Amino acid sequence: MSVRIEIDRLACEANGVCEEILPEALQLDDKDELHLRLAVVPAELEERARKAVQACPRQALRLV
Amino acid sequence: MDTPTTKFVYEPDSPRHTQDPHADYAWLRSNAPVYSWRERDAIVVSSAAGLREMFTDERLSLDVRHWAHYAGEQLFSQPRFEAWRLSDDNGLFRLPPADHARVRKLASVALTPRAVRRMDAQIEATVIEILERMSEGKEVFDVSAFAEAVPMTVISDILGIPEADRAAFRHFGVTVIKAVIPSQDIEVLSGIADTYTEGRKLMLRIIAERRAMSEPPEDMLTDWINATEDGDRLSDDELISLATALIVAGSDTTVHATCYAVYHLLKQPEALAEVRADRSLLRGAIEESLRYDLFGKSGVFRYALEDFEWKGVPVRKGQMIIGLIGAAGRDPELYEEPERFDIRREHRSDLTFGLGRHFCLGANLARSELIHAVGKLLIDYYPDATLEAEPELDFHNPLMRAMKTLPLRLGAKAVQG
After folding, report:
1. Residue B80 phi/psi, 5° resolution?
2. CB atoms within 10 A of CB B8
């Protein structure tokens, strides 16, 4: 089972919490645009990916 | 679940609750995290899990017009109340979901951590100016008066309100803050409505002047005017509502947050000594004071859009739901040793600023103001400051556990420069 992160771009307000938790997969650029760097979340990052989803202040992330 | 031996009565307006709400919070969390408060026909939510549900449940609205006991319809249809109604109707507390999402997207560009970092030096300078002016020659200093002065000045700065209009803008601000406390007095309400009319005129002029500038200043109002998303922009009335929301949601909250942060740091001398020795701990110390003892009293409100059952408690359409964020701050399900004030705690699951659709749009701005207000006062200017007396509480404020005064003995002023 491979897990992917989905971003709700309308909801994202670039608070950067996900980037702090999972910089391997999520990164804000200097225009506050959030970039997804990994198409699939490897198993060893899955726990932190769940944390990032849980901690997003805008609840703009989803694991699918 | 044990049957409590003494009957629990939820009385947030009692002096006892203002002094220390945490015993009530603990009872509610462990006995009735979704509590039916019959006296007020409301549902009170106190656990962290319950609050998370409350903030993300689509069946709950922030629009007070969905409240079964809402009585403003007739009043706000009067012509004299038009400016006030326009401000409410175009604002983030009332817009329907699709418009709400659009306005948030456009407005948030000016309030991201990155955007607030650009304003940081200006906020710092404003705090310094106010602190120097108010503390000059004083031995005992009232933190609440200082805290009171910061947010409205910062808001005027970041909106670039021209000097000549500042007094009028401040009058508008002070009046809309008062309007948050519901009044039944038609004279009072009409007076507020007139101030909204004047404030709307003032803001329309300031916005028009700004739009006409070839080189507008780099501030939040310019960011908002220029914000575009798929060809869409903020209307004048949406801009006015955002400025108003900045005042309504960002003034008193920041004032009381400053007072409680200063108070708890002074009550925890070891923590304060650590922060004074290592400035990088200040941010965490402020988040911790917000978690440990949030200033709220009334809680935050939602209104049920339909009937449903929540943890066995029936919720009726139109009923008010009250979220106690301060209770979630000490939920043992979320925090280890929640009664301990720990400036090194992780704060990623905090609900201080809400969650989801209505997550506090000004959270990063508030953090910057708090860091400078608390940091300048207790670290940079008065590193020997101590509590002169316990704060005097205002038991009549219906929304917050407000401090009327918080006297500090300042001690020697540190040399600046």
Report:
1. -60, -25
2. 12
Interface contact B101-A57, CB threshold 8 A: no
- Which of B114, B348, B355 is nearest residue A14 as measured by Cβ atoms? B114
Length of chain A: 64
Q: Which of B114, B116, B368 to mutate to test the interface with A (most CBs of A within 10 A)?
A: B114
Asked if pLDDT for residue B2 goes beyond 70, the answer is no
Q: Do B355 and A15 touch (CB under 8 A)?
A: no
Name the percent of chain A in helix, strand, coil, to the closest 5.
30, 20, 50
Q: How confident is the model at residue B185 (pLDDT cuts 50, 70, 90)?
A: confident
At residue B123, the 3 state secondary structure works out as: helix
For residue B260 the two structure tokens come to 């409680």
Q: Write down the ipTM of this complex.
A: 0.97
Question: How far, in Å, CA of B393 to CA of B13, rounded?
Answer: 12
Show the tokens assigned to B311. Answer: 């943890």
- Contact list in A for residue B354 (CB cut-off 8 A) is 57
Give the count of alpha carbons within 13 A of B113, CB side only: 12
Which regions of B246-310 does DSSP assign to beta strands (E)?
300-304, 308-310
Question: If you write DSSP's letter for every residue of B349-414 in order, what string do you get?
Answer: T--TT--GGG--TTHHHHHHHHHHHHHIIIIII-TT-EESSPPEE-TT-SSB--EEE-EEE--SPP
Of B302, B353, B348, the residue nearest B326 (C-alpha)? B353
Please name the residue that has the structure tokens 């508030």.
B366
A3 in Cβ contact with A41 (< 8 Å): yes
